[in-house]
Amino acid sequence: MAIHNREAFLERLAGRLGRSPRTAGVERPVWRVHPQKDVLNGLTQDELVQVLEKQCKVIHTDFRRTDCVSLSQVLGEVIEAYKGNQLVIAKDERTEKLGLTSYFEDLRKSGKAVHEWDATLGKENQVIAEKADIGITYSDIALAESGTVALLNDQNQSRSISLLPRSYIAIIPKSTIVPRFTQAVEQIRKELTAGRDVRSCVSLVTGPSNSADIEMKLIVGVHGPIEATYIIVEDK
Amino acid sequence: MGIKIGSPSFKERVQQGVDNDFMRNAVSSAQGRFRSGKENAAEELGNWEEWRTLGEEIRSHTLENIDFYLHQLSEQVEKHGGHVYFADTAEDANTYIQDVVKKKNGKKVVKSKSMVTEEIGLNEALENVGAEVVETDLGEWILQLDHEPPSHIVAPAVHLNKEQIRDTFVEKKGYDSTSRPEDLALFAREQLRQEFLSADIGITGCNFAIAESGTVTLVTNEGNARMVTSLPDTQITVMGMERIVPTWEDMEVLVSLLTRAAVGQKLTSYVTSITGTRQEGEVDGPEEYHLVIVDNGRSKILGTEFQSALHCIRCAACINVCPVYRHVGGHAYGSIYPGPIGAVLTPLLDGYEDHQDLPYASTLCAACTDACPVKIPLHEHLIRHRQIIAEENKQGPKMEQLMMKGFAKWASTPAAYKLSTKMARTALKPWTKDEYISNGPGPLKGWTDVRDFPAPEKENFRSWFKTREGGEQRNGNS
Amino acid sequence: MKVSLFITCLCDTVTPHVGKNTVELLERFGCEVDFPELQTCCGQPAYNSGYLKQSKEAMKQMMRAFKDSEYVVGPSGSCVAMLREYPHIFKDDAEWRQSAEDLAGKSYELTQFLVDVLGITDVGSTFKGKVTYHPSCHMTRLLGIKDAPKTLLSHVAGLEFVPLPLASDCCGFGGTFAVKSPVISEQMVQEKALHVLETEAEYLVGGDMGCLMNIGGRLRRTGEPVKVVHITDILNCRD
User: Fold this and answer.
1) How is chain A split among helix, strand and coil, in percent rounded to 5?
2) Which of A21, A120, B366, C55 could cross-link with A10 by S-S, CB 3.0 to 4.6 Å?
3) pLDDT of residue B442
4) Which of B:334-373 have CB within 8 Å of C?
């Protein structure tokens, strides 16, 4: 049994509340108000992109917008700007879908190291990510209000890719942009109720890492990536 | 470390705080930034009061059913490969974690910021079983090197200046660059990166545990919590038992309130929701996961009029608006939980004996109650504490107890009351000069040590009212 | 309209002119003002210090005194806020519960009464001078009166209004706090005084004599010429 001391503990709590412990029959009420559902309500995808772009300025994140045809070019420009020679990318069907497979091949041919996350290599992936200049992932859900990329991590879209390398690039398919965290949670809960197990990690990433712990001066770039770019791709 | 910090004398701690010019400027400036950040964020939403109402509803329902949700949480964590330990006391929690560390032969532990682990004194317990503990939140790492306690829930090192931080780095870590914050932070990045990569065990706190899926959500800006939960093979989450919500929907509402109320951000750089061990095929994440749920006095608060104090989401909005905090700083409170929430919680968790002064370190201005994103009536809790101390425990100063008895008599005897209004001016005449008193007697002395006191006016109200033309006088039972 | 004056023990003892101003103001707008002689103190000094039992003695006396009043109006946000707490304090007391509800239901702070009940925004007074306003904590946060005083001041002829920096921060009075915690209270009142001086106002005005005596007493101690007046001094000024 992996749970210890639960019965006595919960009996004590319930006793303080004047009753015996409950393991069933508690219904979460319908809350009286839900202001979160009204935020950015009714905006079109393009309007959400505009909100996202504006927010990027606040969170020290570079913003690029393109379509599938020009994606590799724009991606190349960002990689150049970040002086990237060692890249780590998520293993993802969207690479093929967005026409990037051959682009990454070309990068390799030009002498850059492009490591696609390979679960069979175990911890070596982490070592590679740690040494990488740039980590590239696809955004599963993007939150316009806060400029956030929600990554539903798994063995291919692994956590380290957006965490260990010096710089981070998120490729955001336009159709996946939602107003805010509320809608992302709706999607996640839909999956849960449909029987899909919760992921071991869901990472919400909003720009590069930062801290204001020293004299309240904002420093961009602490433990996570020191810089970040979002590339919005018209994916209709 | 435990809850208590600093010297045992409240007066001493207050004086130290008041005398520390740098700290006071730093705190004042930090408060200003946090407050305007929160105000702007709230204004942008446009309906902040509705959000507060929702926040209060969620927390209230959750605490009323805390046993149910903790049960659900533990079932879910186990389902996802984790171990759950329900710790009655700080010692129990520490012993369990020590056992885990010993079993894994853990030599290096990396920690992300967690107030509850400070409360239970975890770091010392780990060192006692031969593990090296490294705090990885920038502010907490600085304090660890300095052997100092935090002075603010969200910005723990706010009381230190960059020169002091540089000195610490030089002395403890052989740093040899400037005191520019960017250089200091880069050094911390390099140093702590090595620690993350070589750690056996990662320990985090918990901003919000989600009962429906056994998930723990962590809210940071630096990326250290992500490192701590992705790299080591063994991971432990320590959570205050009240830090729980029913569903993901509730979590996102409270995270939204937290990030705005704390620092005026829509979301922090990283909001990370982890569940149990890593799954089949995953490289990142732990292979062994433990959740330690800590009571340590919290259950005593359940079922009392103080129960709403457990609604706290540790945003520090109350600390950021408190003028008392602004002038004395966090360490003056003698607790790792400073400010208004500290004054409310500390006597409840650690007893009244050492913390009797805290509920009185307030003018009851209610700025804290106003600021709280989940509507905890903080100033009312302070009054209740005072009632317990003064009336129930009879711990008030003897002089004060006598005076209050006199007050009750005076205020319920109109004849005595009326006489005092007539005689006040005459009684104070010996100390009056130019219609003011600068050196008053008895209870007035505390006042006149700091400011002048006006002499009672010559013409008494009642005589004026009686003798004026057309003035009506309602005579009660006199 | 029959109105009973709640003068507050502080004004009764130290600054009766505030009571006089209040009576004259109310009468000017058609109120028939009486003064229940049995009133004493709202109980706040004991209540806030944690002496509930003793504070209740004062509170019962107040309920007796205003038993027959239609409206109870007082020139202090803090004291009226205390009256409004009576229902909560006596909620389990079968004997006094109704009286507490009654008193709380008919009690008003003066500016609130003028604006919200009598519907007056311009009292027709003149007051020449540069004035800054300190919004006392209990008036704004416990009674929720944020606009009434400023509305009234905005219509005073000759008055130049200048906002007070960090106005909503407590002045450090807090009743007994000022004498029990002099070190912290001093810091708070000094900060408030400095903000007042920043405005270069000739007058500091407020709705609570406790706060004004605190800030005014400090300004005088530090040799500053800023004059401190109660809002009724301005509203009742016809010169």
Assistant:
1) 35, 25, 40
2) A21
3) 86
4) 360-367, 369-370
pLDDT at B1: 67
Asked if B47 lies within 8 A of A35 by C-beta distance, the reply is yes
Question: Which is it for strands B82-87 and A227-234: parallel, antiparallel or unpaired?
Answer: unpaired
**Touching check for A236 and chain B: CB below 8 Å?**
no
Amino acid at B256: S
Q: Does B389 touch chain C (CB under 8 A)?
A: yes
Consecutive 10-residue averages of pLDDT for chain B (478 residues): 86 95 93 94 95 98 98 98 98 98 96 95 96 95 93 91 94 95 94 96 98 97 96 98 98 97 95 97 97 98 98 97 96 96 97 95 98 98 97 93 96 95 93 94 91 94 83 42
Which residues of C fall within a CB distance of 8 Å from B420? 13
pLDDT on residue B476: 40
CB B248 within 8 A of CB A185: yes
Does B contact C via 3+ CB–CB distances below 8 Å? yes
Interface predicted TM-score (ipTM) of this complex, two decimals: 0.97
What's the CATH fold of domain B10-300? Answer: Rossmann fold (3.40.50)
Q: Which residue of B has its CA nearest to A152?
A: B273
Q: Where are the domains of chain B?
A: 10-300, 398-467
Mean pLDDT, range C182-208, rounded to an integer = 97
Yes or no, beta carbons of C54 and B472 under 8 Å apart: no
Q: How far is A111 from chain B (nearest CA, A)?
A: 27
Determine the Cα–Cα distance for residues B330 and B328; give it in Å rounded to an integer: 7
Q: Could you tell me the domains of chain C?
A: 2-116 (no CATH), 121-235 (3.40.50)
Q: Is residue A23 part of a domain?
A: no
- How far apart are alpha carbons A178 and A187 in whole angstroms? 10
Give the burial class of C68: count Cβ atoms within 10 A of its Cβ; 0-12 exposed, 13-18 middle, 19 or more buried.
Answer: exposed
Using a CB-CB cut-off of 8 Å, the residues of chain A touching B69 are: 26
Q: Does B20 touch chain C (CB under 8 A)?
A: no
Question: What does the pLDDT average to over C201-208?
Answer: 97
The pLDDT tens digits for A157-174 are 999 999 999 999 999 999
Asked if B337 contacts B345 with a C-beta cutoff of 8 angstroms, the reply is: yes
Q: Looking at beta carbons, which residues of chain C come within 8 Å of B459?
A: 16-17
d(CA B109, CA C163) in angstroms, rounded, equals 53
Specify if A103 maps to a domain: yes
The span from the CA of C51 to the CA of C53, in Å, is 6
SS3 B468: coil
Q: Global pTM?
A: 0.95
Cβ contacts of B147 within 8 Å, gap of 6 or more: none
The count of structural domains within chain A is: 1
Structural domain including A138 reads 41-234
> For residue B285, which of A126, A191, A197, A144 has the smallest C-alpha distance?
A126
Do C42 and B403 touch, CB atoms closer than 8 A?
A: no
Q: Inter-axis angle of helices C52-65 and C97-105, to 10 degrees?
A: 60
Asked if C181 lies within 8 A of B414 by C-beta distance, the reply is no
- Domain of A114: which CATH number? 3.40.50.10420
Question: Does some domain include residue A146?
Answer: yes
**Nearest-CA distance A230 → chain B (Å):** 14
